[in-house]
Batch of 2 targets.
Target 1
Amino acid sequence: MSENLNLPAIEMRGVNVAAMRDASFTVVEKVNWSVAAGEFWVIAGQEHSGKSDLLMLVAGLMPPVAGSCILFGTDTKSFGEGELAERLRVGFVFQGGQLFNQLTIAENVALPLRYVKNLSPDAAAREVASLLELLELTPLADVTPANVAANWRQRAALARALILKPEILLLDNPLAGLGARHLQWWLRFLDQLSRGHEQFGGKPMTMVVTADDLSRFAGCQNARRKFALLRDKKFIPLGGWNEVEIVNDPIVKELLAVPVELTS
Amino acid sequence: MTLCYAAFVRGNLAKAFELTNTQVFRRAPLPKSYTDYLGRKLFLFLLTVQGLGAFALITLGVILKKNGAAKNVIRPRIRQEISRAGVALLPMFFFVALALGFLVIGQTVSALAKVGAISYLGSTMVIVVVRELGPLLAAFLVLARVGTAHVIELGTARALGEVEALEALGIDPVHYLIVPRVIGMALGIFSLTVYLIIGALASGYLFAFLQDVPLTPGDYFKQIVESLSWLDFALLALKTMAFGFFIAIVTCYHGLAQPLRLEEVSRVAVRAVTQGVIVCVMIDALFIVLYLVT
């Protein structure tokens, strides 16, 4: 757990973000951003605006082209084998889940725990079962991801990211394509994590969520929730939900799914 | 190499292979000049050799450095790979051993008996079956059956972003995906070669026996045993393990090392098999030199 509560959980200074698939192409430039422990950020942007790449960079999966990204006081550039414990304080949920298709849902969730702590399947079983139950995944425990609907795969990916009890949770467009029931569940569960869930120590979890549809966060009352926009390679902090609603930006309006006026 | 390894230990696999990225050359339009074309081919070859060398060193480094790490996860995977590259192929190898004995050895025994050169049988069998045909055939069969599966599995995993998912979970992709395959294939080819040689020699005698060749089983196997030296056993083990190691390196390198799109996986699998065959022939040539020197 973070010792110094005044230290930002994530801090970016003049960061240029490259595309994960093409390191020579910069997708976001000069990001100056600070995330305090326990904050909940929603990064909105259109497709290919660099949301996923920004999250990958925060997770230490790729280095910044310029500037520095600091996690709990450690520059991610210096992340190596020795800093694995620092990296594991960050959980990552990929868009689409990126589950391992040859493993069952329970094996997928158990894998990071078993690998990092060198546990046998039996030793990890209790913790995995408890998490699967929390996320209502128990009936799907022995099913492979290919035989599970996309909504549930996304939830299994969340379980896999939470199994190591991270302090920061990064979620890449988790609400995309969810049905109404799943959407309500996700918003409620993320809110519980943000306020502090007893299964994860009761401490508010720092979260960064990307989205291409801001309307899904409409009416949220969580004061810790902050919004930012990626547009024209720029990172633009917007403030809370009240500020988002009054921003006069065509892209924000589009992301809020405000009905367009059709001309006859 | 140092740069590659340093990049890898920072936990960024993709970065390590930017240095040997051949995609730029492969996707570039054909040059007009014939010499330019040859130059490009040579450059591609050197880049591939560099990439394979770096990947082999990285894998060796991980095998040594992480020996015993996460053993509850890695050891079952190694057993699974040994089963896939060894045990599961046994029925096919018994059939091939039977066919090899029937087609090659039986006829050789029969021909040597006809010209009265039966005393050369032992040394002929050791050179043809133990040193050359057995290991090479075993390597090619495993390459075809398991090597192609490696490229497709890893290429698909890479294209679907599973490698990034492993890194995000703090799991070393080389340790989790490559090391079990390399160890499994090295041990698998070694064991299968031994079975193939024994099966081929036995079935070869059976065929010769059916042709009424005047040679008792005792004399046949005595000649073979007398022609074998400790060096044959040592080099056979080394050679088959080298085949397994390098086939796994070539197939895993092509599946994992470079970012792939799903539609590229089949083309990369063909390239990996071709390079696997070339690597096996080169290793075989190296061992022929070793046999000649010793």
Note: The mean pLDDT of chain A is 87.
Target 2
Amino acid sequence: MHEMSVAQNIFDIVRKNIPEESEEKVVKIHLKVGELSGVVPDSLSFCIDIIKDESNFKNVFIEIEQVPITAHCQLCGKTSQLEFGVFFCPNCQSTNIKLLTGRELDIVDIELND
Amino acid sequence: MIEGEYMSVITIERKILAKNDEIAQQNRELFQKNKVFVFNLVSSPGSGKTSILERTLEHIQNKINVAVIEGDVQTDFDAQRIAKYNVPVVQIVTRGGCHLDALLIQDALKKISLQNIRMLIIENVGNLVCPANYDLGEAMKVLIVSTTEGDDKPLKYPGMFLNATALIINKIDLIPYVNCNISHLKQNALQINPRLKIFETSCTTGAGIYEWCSWILSQIQK
């Protein structure tokens, strides 16, 4: 739902990190989107395409790395991957868990064709 | 890669919403400087945010000075309801935007004199997804879920439940008429966030409002 403003933020950050007037040289933007981030990767790609078409970022390809939810169990000490909507340790069923990953909404790096 | 072409990689490693987080931090510092306790009221549309706000104002406005920021997609209906309580209120109309962000709050704060305020309540746009991602500079998020929404909301919208400090289960007077098992609702919420402080309220009968208000007032000192 808020993917459009997220997409705008992505291009703002990229612009600040590249030399002036080199938008056309950007060929890849690498993102990390966690399963709990509240952002739907397909919608984000769709919004990015809309902005891209109206900007100088004509050659950019978006790589979205989806990050699963992982948690560390404070009781049995095991680190496990959790399914969406299941918030207990799959090993010992304890709810005393600490989330490690899944909330990412990060821009990792960009590639320029020099 | 085509021969003769060179690629360069620029490492960024930055949160996409970092700009919002920076402004939220400025808001937070402003609140701390003026000793204003701020909470962000979030829920689906129609869970009773404005009604809870009205009942809350009735209970606490003679104890402390309160101001309200109202967020809505359209109309200032909510601000009109709150203005009847003679508290400072600013309406933000997002015109389609599905959440409030820190910059909108920063702008709204220009219309409130924080020196005379002890508590600021921000009523977010009704939405259980997007507002979870946007820090506004508040001390805590208070989440409302009503019994008419069913007991599985926590499992469907875990992001919001993870970020909330307190959960108000509203419209408990309607339990006999709706398909909502309140112990399942609590169990689901606590499974996602075992630290949630839970209240059960009805804005129609007034049930639970005193308990909720006593608790939120006690949070000001912390």
Note: Chain A touches chain B at residues 1-2, 5-6, 9-10, 12-14, 17-18, 27, 31, 36-39, 84-85, 87-88, 95-96, 99, 103, 105-114 (CB under 8 Å).
